[in-house]
Amino acid sequence: MKSRSRFALFIFISFSCIFMVTACSSKPIVKRVEVDKTVDLSGRWNDTDSRLVAGEMIEDCLNRPWINKFTVSYKGRNPDVIVGTVVNRSHEHISIETFTKDLERALINSGRVNFVASKTERRELREERFDMAQNSSIATQKAQGQEAGADFMLKGTINTIIDEIKGEKVAFYQVDLELINLLNNRKVWIGDKKIKKYITRSRFKF
Question: What's the pTM?
């Protein structure tokens, strides 16, 4: 009996060692996919959410009365828009810079608005113009005081509500954006986009 027990223990230990060595030595499998393909792994906010939300919300924004009123009032001129702060109030980390860049891209590619550089970008551009004034030829210098001022600022928030029980979770995301007239602080457009994800997980953890 003792010899059988020892043999069984030896077999168990041997298989455990083989499993551990195999697991530790296995290489990750990498497969390239199209950048616009939807890949949901964890159920968290991802690049697809960022791209689709930005595209849909900007499309809605640019199809509201404010833009026609502006172009009529300013004899056909496209409004100058800047993206302000988008605050992440969700339960998870979200790359706000990626989302704001998606918003900027959707605005610029629409061809219906002009886009003004951000505060950080303007600071760098002003430093470059100052350097030009000191070192560049007069013919190629760009004068100070010629910047286009923004007519509207886009601001927003991202919020989440989580409902979770063992093995199941519902994640609700709400993105709220507002477009504000910088001349008088009036809000000319308010939009929201909601996303709900149902996530299931295996009860067995390895």
Answer: 0.76
